[in-house]
Amino acid sequence: MTSARLDTLARLQGAIDRLESGTAETLRRVPLGHAEADSVLHGGLVQGALHEVFCDGHHSAAATGFAAGVARLLADQRYLLWIRQDFSARENGELAMEGFAELGLDPRRLVMVCAHDADSALRAAADALGCNGLGAVITELWGETRSFDQVASRKLTLAAQDSGVTALMLRIAAAPQASTAETRWMVRAAHSPPSEDWGAPVLETSLIRNRHGQTGRWIMEWNCDACQFREPQTHSRPVAAEVADRSVRTSGISAERLLAG
Amino acid sequence: MVAAKRDNALVVVACDARASRGGVLPGMPLATVRAMHPAVDVIDHDPHADSVLLNAIADWCDRFTPLVALDGADGLLLDITGCAHLFGDEARLLDTLIAALTRQGFEVSAAIAGTAVAARALTRGAPRSIVAPGEEARAVAPLHVAALGVDEAIVRGLRRAGLKTIGEVLARQSAELAARFGEGFVAVLRQATGDDDAPISPRRPAPDYLIDKRFPEPIATLEVILPTLLGLAKLLIAAMERSGKGARQLVASFFRSDGAVRRISVETGQPVTRVDVVQRLFAEKLGALADPLDPGFGYDLIRLAASVSVPTSEAQRGFDTNAHQAEDVALLADTLAARLGARRVVRYLPQDTHIPERVALAVPVQHCPPDAGDAPWPARADIPPLRPLRLLQQPEPIEVLAGVPDGPPAQFVWRRVTHRVARAEGPERIAAEWWRAAEPGLTRDYFRIEDESGARFWLYRDGLYNVEVTPQPDGSDPLRWYMHGLFA
């Protein structure tokens, strides 16, 4: 009797979990490359879910870089759809393909959609999330908007779960609100390591919401060659310990840098 | 009566039947008319409104044939080759057209003939006549030469020579006529008699495929319109499939019962061969119209035409997931473009230039060449990014404090916020492309800047110091700085 009851309970629990799509085993997680962050995220960011990236107006480019990097990781060589609100482009500039390519991302796999306002951007996002050919959909909105409420975020979450396409919201100059997002990040630019001249993007990322775990705050650096995040490299030149597994190419750089220095 | 100013005098341009009964003729000075009939109503001539109206009538006439051409300021030419049987025969078509236009309040004269010039002459000289091919010469002979619609100087010249009817002119040697009035007039005569024919130049190119549906009772609700469109799409696509074609552009025309015509077109990147795609695109487009369909009293004719069609190859869908993905994305792009406009769904193609704002060209996905996905972007160098991730739409002027005039900035004010420079790298000099433009602009010295909060900027000084820009004698600073981009 009791075991039958427990059985039923377990079955119901499973059904609820499936409905909430919350069990760790069913979710595909993609590691960011930053060890601490990945351990807090139980292995990485969930594919086919909604993730939000917030920033204030002065750090729009840093947040753009973070969103682009995350999208690249989650999209896994598939097409990336970038939907941006007209006003955001006027305020923060257009996405520049040269810089995009230099981050190690592929402009050929990017389709840009220019939406008049937040409403049409969200509608386009909801449609795009149903398209299996895409890897990720980034929706870039500027400022506070009433149209992205609980209902809209729920809609995007469900669409993302159905198709497995990851939804990323890039919210510039907006304050975080309640939503159904899997994770929510606050991103700002961090200081470059003092010894380096001009390095890869270094970002201060705060995970301020995580549906399935803890939150945290890390400094991450985007590694343009490996297309992953990593801990900031304090030493621009490889130290002795790294010599053992250094690839031919990196030794090339260091030789170049030594020559240049 | 309509009057207009010609050579500084008000002249009658057109008048109605009552006025002509009273002795008024087009071309009379208005003063004369006023002397004859002091109570006459005079309206100012508005050629623009006339042409708008004529175009609206031409739109309406599209229901008879896709080939409708404007003929002067007051005529329309319809090429009804192969269309007459849809209305019974030629006489019924003519009756239908005249009755419908008369019902709308127009005074119409119309005629059918084998050539455009003959039809024009008959319309003016003997309305409602239908002339079988080969009989044009006999039919137009008794008409006045003015009915040919040729230049007024020619008509006047013929009148002076005593030639009043077309028949009299035809009796002369064509060489004489050519010597006096030019080859063009002879060509018009040959066309009037059916010896020669020239195609009309329709207002719109004839679509490759076209299908329409008439309603005895006008329909007005979207619930009926969409299924109708879907039914038409099915027939159209089936017809195109038989000849191995797919549509790149589809135009739906809605003919309102009161004469207004609305055209809505959708475009696709890949040729459409599936009905559900057509339906989805039109549903999107109709839903997104800024100026929604206004059925008024209802539509009595809906037409679907494939204005651009390309051959398709029935390719078997392979297991190549890349091709599937590209296909899905193209479909999505079509849907979004139908709603937002083609220019708003773009891909970037690399350009051979080093001017930062021109490196990437945004091209509508639907107009991308098929190999756009393979266009090579410059290979990434093994160095940190030297170009910003976001580029401002317009470089914005900033106020800069620099140690030396041609050195890196120490502090700058952008959008009323002061940034203290923590790290600067540069200059990277980008010269204008003097070989492209007459006024190429100044050389820019770009600096990569990190401010104290860690935000990174790309800004430039316009012009080489002491070469392109020189300090003013009054000591004012000639250097202008601009913010151009933001680094991640």
Helicity of chain B, as a percent range: 25-40%
Distance between the termini of chain B: 72 Å
Q: What overall geometry of chain A do the principal axes of the alpha carbons give?
A: globular
Strand content of chain A: 25-35%
Question: In terms of structural class, how would the helical and strand content of chain A be classed?
Answer: alpha/beta
How much of the polypeptide of chain B forms β-strand, as a percent range?
25-35%
Output the keywords.
heterodimer, A: 261 residues, 26% strand, globular, B: 488 residues, alpha+beta, 29% helix, extended, P-loop_NTPase (chain A)
Detailed description of the structure:
The complex is a heterodimer of chains A (about 260) and B (about 500). Chain A has about 260 residues and is an alpha/beta fold. Chain A is built from 8 helices and 12 strands. In chain A, strands 6-4-7-8-3-9-10-11-12 form a 9-stranded mixed beta sheet. Chain A is globular, with a radius of gyration of 20 Å. At the A-B interface, helix 3, helix 4, strand 5, helix 5 and strand 6 of A face helix 13, strand 10, strand 12, strand 14 and strand 17 of B. Strand 6 (about 110-115) of chain A pairs antiparallel with strand 10 of chain B.
Quick summary:
The complex is a heterodimer of chains A (261) and B (488). Chain A is of the alpha/beta class and 261 residues long.
Can you lay out the helices and strands and say which pair or pack?
The complex is a heterodimer of chains A (261) and B (488).
Chain A: H1 2-20, E1 29-30, H2 35-40, E2 45-46, E3 50-55, H3 60-75, E4 79-85, H4 86-92, E5 94-95, H5 97-102, E6 110-115, H6 118-128, E7 134-142, H7 150-163, E8 166-172, E9 183-189, E10 202-210, E11 216-223, E12 228-230, H8 248-260
Parallel strand pairs in A: 3-8, 3-9, 4-6, 4-7, 7-8
Antiparallel strand pairs in A: 1-2, 9-10, 10-11, 11-12
Chain B: E1 2-6, E2 9-14, H1 17-21, H2 30-36, E3 43-44, H3 47-61, E4 68-71, E5 75-78, H4 90-103, H5 116-125, H6 136-140, H7 152-160, H8 166-170, H9 174-181, H10 183-192, E6 209-219, H11 222-242, E7 245-256, E8 261-272, H12 275-288, E9 299-311, H13 321-340, E10 345-350, E11 360-364, E12 390-402, E13 409-414, E14 417-430, E15 444-451, E16 456-462, E17 480-487
Parallel strand pairs in B: 1-3
Antiparallel strand pairs in B: 1-2, 4-5, 6-9, 7-8, 7-9, 10-11, 12-13, 12-17, 13-14, 14-15, 15-16, 16-17
Helix pairs in contact in B: 5-10, 9-10, 11-12, 12-13
